[in-house]
Amino acid sequence: MIIIMIIMIMFIDRKEELDKLLEIAKSKKAELVLVYGRRRVGKSRLLVEFAKKTDALYLLADISENILDILARQVNKEFVKFSTWEDFFEFIYKSKYKIIIIDEFQYLYLVNKAWPSMLQRWWERIKETEKKIILCGSIISTVYKISMGYGAALYGRKTFEMQITPLKFKFLKDFFPNYTLEQLVQAYAILGGVPRYLEEFDPKAGIEENVKNKILNKTSFLYNEPLNLLFEEFRSPAPYVSIFLAITQGYTKFSEIAEVSKIQTHKLPKYLLILERVGLIEKEIPITEKKIKAKTTRYKIKDNFYKFWFNFVFKNKSLIEQGLEKEVFDSIEKEFNAYVGKAFEDVCREFIIDSKIFRLTKIGRWWHKDKEIDIVALNDQTKEVLFAECKWKDKVDARKVLDNLREKAKDVKLLKNKEVYAIFAKSFKEKFKEPGVLLFDLNDLKKSGII
User: Fold this and answer.
1) pLDDT tens digit string along 178-229?
2) H or E stretch covering 265
């Protein structure tokens, strides 16, 4: 029997995650599984799909003083009543259900701080059965405190944990089947791979119409979404907003972020680490670096929608509130191509990995002083190196870009037996063939079927 109390949405990809859950469901021992990830990424949808395929009881937690009554009502036709948490755990232990899913389980902790300890105690009994308890959480800071940090009540007791991350670029065509590849890259640059955000855009409307109606519209779901989630995730979101604003202004080093955000240097690491755990920012070092060093480490906004929102919406909110959406969109248009260019680098990186045009063991970026290479892929076994540049422009002069790339590659301190060069662009002025040189325009990427 399956109790489902969430809105049904499209189920795209997640085959690997679903297969793993189905494998766990067949195991002959007790399992305590943690499924976690940032909000809107499709965790609940995955678990509903899993519940459809198994004899699972799906329970959705809530932050309510009446949570025991809410949980009891979800077990309909069982006529159960949970007067205490002991009743709840007794039900799980004795119930006919072999698989129990508790979605948004972090709310149970927020209602009752002793809940993880109670589960820990009951797990000593449950682990002697073949029951599977799947806990799913969204507020990452709380989930980490309960179950992932050293010393947490559930630390060391989980039999498996699964992080649900945003979808890869190649799955956007399932949301927008009529979009050109150029439009798909633009949509990805705006929304990233978060299913809930992708579903907000009208697949029958163009990029401009969607941005105006679905983001710059004060009544739209996406208009205040990043700020709403920051308020939900953190008690005081102000420091996190300051960090996002600093990074969008180009201040990406630790010292720069501290100076611009006015956050004390001894407090900043904690805020950055939390944003990394949530999956909203990430730390980067040049691919040639063996260790993380303060002087070469940069921070970037990992989530494309947050990046777009803090670049174009947050700073223009006063204009939008005054009804000047058209003026705001006009200002976005002027910077949009340069903005999409960064997301295009991510698309090209995904293509390199999935297409296997180069056998790699490591991939990233490289920079030193005023020089930068968009993508560098290494093969530690063969000592081969791929250098790639990504140009979100039409009629790119491939020969000029190649010469410049070769010049920059000389400064990359690597033992190289063989170098391969790749250039990606919307289109080229002229294509040529040369050993060790690969040229890909949007038509080539589309024909490949990889993305």
Assistant:
1) 999 999 999 999 999 999 999 999 999 999 999 999 999 999 999 999 999 9
2) none
Distance CA 172, CA 253 (A): 32
- List, in order of start, the domains of the chain with CATH numbers: 15-163 (3.40.50.300), 170-342 (1.10.10), 344-448 (3.40.1350)
Q: Is 0.90 topped by the overall pTM?
A: yes
What's the DSSP call for residue 395?
S
Element (H, E) at 318: helix 317-321
Distance CA 32, CA 19 (A): 17
113: left (phi over 0), alpha (psi -120 to 50) or beta: alpha
CA–CA distance, 346 with 172 (Å, rounded to integer): 14
What SS3 state is found at 442?
helix
SS3 (DSSP) at 409: helix
Which of the four pLDDT bands, split at 50, 70 and 90, describes residue 77? low
Q: Return the structure tokens found at 422.
A: 């790749």
Length of the chain: 451
What mean pLDDT comes out for the span 118-144?
Answer: 93
